[in-house]
Design goal:
CATH class of the largest domain: Mainly Beta
Radius of gyration: 22 Å
Strand order of the largest sheet: 1-12-11-6-7
Number of strands: 12
CATH topology of the largest domain: Immunoglobulin-like
Number of domains: 2
Distance between the termini: 71 Å
Largest sheet: 5 strands, mixed
CATH architecture of the largest domain: Sandwich
Structural class: alpha+beta
Length: about 190
């Protein structure tokens, strides 16, 4: 075999090995990288080791048949005349090789810095209620075959009581606080 042919084969072998190392290196880390901030709903964002997605957010009407179900299990008083119920429906996935628990720490902040915190929902009564859940690798929340998974929102519910002043102080931002994260992951909500 000529020296030119040997050199060409070595270069090809070097390129193939290099390409394999790049592929192995990018898949070995165990998690697909997503941003930690999004200017709209529907984008996958990372908060700590897990990936989250806002499926939909919207005002709830307690006189609407569907929305009544989202308000079951809520013991907080009804909103005052200058307030409204607002729900954020969230999805999560564990794209790592280890078990992790979804966060249960959220807030919504408006443009003047006013923060709103989730209203407790009894998950034993309301099958849509978001609850911190342990996820094995590649698990998602809400769990497949659950009411929240197959429901119209396809997400776990975070319920807020917002002042009507939010319409003057838009956009609203959902902040997701994951353990060990220095700054919250943020998603701008459609309102």
């Amino acid at each position: 075999m000529s020296s030119r042919l040997k050199a060409a084969l070595r270069r090809r072998l070097f390129l193939v090995v290099g390409a394999l190392l790049v592929v192995l290196g990018t898949t070995a880390c165990g998690q697909i990288a997503h941003p930690t901030s999004s200017d709209n709903e529907g984008v996958y964002v990372d908060a700590g080791p897990l990936t989250y997605q806002v499926q939909i957010s919207r005002e709830l009407n307690p006189f609407n048949i569907e929305d009544k179900e989202y308000l079951s299990g809520v013991t907080a008083p009804a909103p005052a005349p200058d307030q409204e119920w607002f729900a954020v429906f969230l999805w999560a996935k564990n794209e790592t090789h280890s078990d992790h628990v979804t966060t249960n720490s959220f807030d919504i902040v408006d443009t003047i810095g006013k923060k709103y915190y989730p209203i407790p929902i009894n998950a034993a009564i309301n099958p849509y209620a978001w609850t911190a859940t342990a996820l094995k690798p590649l698990d998602i929340y809400p769990k497949p075959d659950s009411t929240a998974y197959f429901g119209p929102t396809q997400g776990g519910e975070l319920l807020f009581k917002l002042n009507n002043s939010i319409y003057s102080n838009r956009p609203l931002t959902l902040e997701i606080y994951a353990a060990g994260q220095k700054h919250p992951t943020t998603v701008t909500l459609d309102l």
